[in-house]
Structure formats: structure tokens, C-alpha cells
Amino acid sequence: MKILVIGSGGREHALAWKLAQSPRVGKVYVAPGNGGTATGERMQNLPITDIAQLADFCVAEDIHLTVVGPEAPLAAGVVDHFRARKLRIWGPTQGAAQLESSKAYAKAFMQRHGIPTAAHRTFDVAFEAHAYIDVRGAPLVVKADGLAAGKGVVVAQTVAEAHAAVRDMLEQNTYGVQHGVEGARVVIEDFLEGEEASFIVLVAGNHVVPLASSQDHKRLRDGDEGPNTGGMGAYSPAPVVTPEVHARVMREIILPTVHGMAAEGHPYTGFLYAGLMVNAQGQARTLEFNCRLGDPETQPILMRLKSDLVGVLDAALDGKLDSVELHWDRRTALAVVMAAPGYPELLRLGGEITGVPRPEDDLHVFHAGTRLDDGVLRTSGGRVLAVAALGDSVRIAQARAYSGVRQIQFEGMQFRQDIGWRAIKR
Ligand code: AMP
Ligand code: GLY
To answer: What is the reported pLDDT for 169?
Structure first.
């Protein structure tokens, strides 16, 4: 059986690695893939990104199942296109993917369905946004409405910072956000206190199966300082998601979302990711929805998943997700991202990468921004590698992951030294 994974990041390398372990799978194509998926066992890169051409490939090669990694093809309607051509694909439709592609849509949806989230207002006229900031006062969070690769969010501690963010996003589009057809909009919301967690579930119609919890580290530098990034490291499980928090999130956030999407004519299929802020009382509020797996959360989550992912996705697509029970390695998995010099702003790419350790049972290096250039591995994107390890505790998984990091060299590499610190501090 042949599988196609769409995407080129660390999440897609981890998906391909996990799917390739299924006893029924002969080959996993990754389109367009990276330097890791180029040489992975039973993996092959496919230099296609056009949706119609990918569908043609699936017909010609009799691909059993396509799994979509990133949000961009989902927002562009890859699932609608594949379904119209009777091809099997795992992911939400364009309509359902609005939960991620438009923050304004997601906020209005949460409001309609009573899903806990920060109070907010949406603006497309700058002076109204500025006036709201003056009335509301800091701290505030200003978010560009559109896909921004994790960079279109400014947590403003002062009113001046909030005004500057509105100027950047609404008046100048400094972040190069892909705005919707209506043009630039910003969402301004109240700042929430607490600890973040990533809560990702499998959804097919009205059935939901949660994946293991995880926590990402979005800031560039140790101690959660510096600019927001796509994610500098992650681990699973996240201790902040206690059994009580878990039950509450399912009841107050996930199930109302899944049922609400179906009721509004956008029945959801695929991975659904709720980014949560959990306060000291164990109340969870939704910071954002993503219509895909997290990156780098996927790398530790899939290291812990014991079940056959192909069997799970097949059952879900056949309407049998309610019969699925996932089995997890009880150990903690932790992944450290190694980023290119200049990330997350102006990248300096092309440097040679050496020393990547061979995979072992408890250690795996997932590639993201890498390419193979005449047999030489080089950096080709902001987040270059994620070194993921399993251990009996967060500390042990952390030590093992950093033992892998220390073997790797490339010029100007950046990585955090403290991935997992909140779990260790608990
Ligand atoms: P988002 O892309 O909406 O998840 O926002 C990116 C990051 O900004 C989150 O991971 C949080 O660290 C922070 N953030 C977003 N919204 C809020 C909020 N309402 N209160 C506090 N922090 C927030
Ligand atoms: N790591 C955060 C995300 O994938 O959105």
C-alpha cells in the first residue's frame, strides 16, 4: 500500500516515519519533503506542490491514502479537490479549515457556541482599533487575521505596543500575512494568564479521539523570552493537562466545536488542534484552533504512539473512529528544535549539517528545513531539525534529547537549552 504525505517540515517527517512503520505500507511519498524524508526508510520525495497534480499522481500511482501536514493546502481546498475526485484524504475541507485560516471566523464561532476564549473585537478600520486599545488598556493581544506561520501575534504589555502592532498589521502588513478576500483585519483580545498546552484530537464527523497532550515552546529564547516562533521544542504528555483538565476541555471546548461545525454545515474530518491557556484553577480557554497537527508537537506525540496510524486513519475515514482506542508509550517524549541563524527573521541558509545521530529506539532526529545537495545535508529553512527522545521522566527524556543535539553541527545553529522546564519545575 502506498501513502502520500503533503508537506515538507518536521511534522511531515514524523508522520511519514510513523506511517511507514505500518505493516501494510510499502512506500510513503512526501510532497515535496525534505532532506530527511529523501533518505528515510520506505520514503520517497515527490517534487510536486500543485493540488491538481498531486491528485493526478494519486490516481496514477493508486495511492491508498493522503495525509495533509500543513494548513496552507487545507485552506486552499486540497481536501475538497481530492474528495471530488474520489480520492481518500485525511484533513478538513476548506470550509472547516477556516477555524485556523481566519482568526475572526474562529472567534465568532466560539462566541456563537459558548466555547471559552478571551474576550475580543475584530477591526478592519485602523482608527477604530486604536480607539478600542485606548479604552481597553494593556495588556492586550493583537492578532493578524490570516495565515502568518505563527508570527502574526503580538502580546502587547503596553498600550503603545498595541498601537504599533495595529499599525504594522493593518496599515503596513509588515508580517506579510496572507489576508482573506476582505483584506486586512486584526483581532484584539484580552490577555489571558496561565500555562499553555496543545490539545490535539482526531475528528471524523461526530466522533472524536484525543491524542496525547503536549506543550510547545513558542518563544525563541530560554525562559520563554524573545520573539514568537513556529515552536522551538515540545514534549508529551503535558502535566498541566491533568485528568480533570482533560475532561473539561473535551466537554467545554472540543465536543461543542465538533458538533458546532457539523451543525453549521462544515462537518470536521482530520486533526483538530486547540491551543489552550490553562489557569491556576484548571479552567482552559482556547487561544486558537489549528486544523492540523502541531509542529513540533507531532514529533514527541508520534514517538509515543504505539497504535498503527494507518489503521487508525482508515477506521476514521470509514466512519469507525468510535471503535478506535489509541495505545501510548507511558514514557515522556521531548523534542528540541535546532534553528537556522537569523530565525525567525532573516535566515542565513545553505550551511552544511554534520553529526546527525542514527535513529535508535529512544532517539530520533526529524528533519524540517534541510535538503540533500549532492549527498551533502544543508540547511534550507528556519527550523532545521527536531531531536526527539523518549525517557522515563521529563528530565531523562530531556537529557537524552540534548545528548543528540550535542552531536550535531551547523554554522549559527540556535536552540533552547531549557525545553521541558515547566514540567520539570512542577
Ligand atoms: P496564537 O497564534 O493565537 O496561538 O498566539 C500565539 C501565542 O501568543 C500563543 O501561543 C500565546 O503564547 C500568545 N497568546 C495568544 N493569545 C493570547 C492571549 N489571549 N493571552 C495571552 N497570550 C496569548
Ligand atoms: N507548534 C505550534 C503549531 O504548530 O501551531
So the answer is: 87
The closest of 252, 249, 246 to 113, measured between CA atoms, is: 252
Query: How many CB atoms lie under 10 A from the CB of residue 75?
Result: 20
Contact 140, 129 (CB under 8 A): no
pTM of the full structure: 0.94
If you measure from the C-alpha of residue 187 to the centroid of ligand 1, how many angstroms do you get, rounded to a whole number? 12
Query: Are 160 and 139 in contact, with CB atoms under 8 Å apart?
Result: no
Residues 233-244: tens digit of each pLDDT: 999 999 999 999
Return the ligand number nearest the Cα of 148. 1
Burial of 173 (C-beta count, 10 Å sphere; 0-12/13-18/19+): middle
pLDDT of 181 higher than 70: no
Burial-class residue 49 by CB neighbours within 10 Å (0-12, 13-18, 19+).
Answer: middle
183: left (phi > 0), else alpha (psi -120 to 50), else beta? left
Q: Quote the pLDDT of residue 183.
A: 67
Going by alpha carbons, the residue nearest to atom 3 of ligand 2 is 294
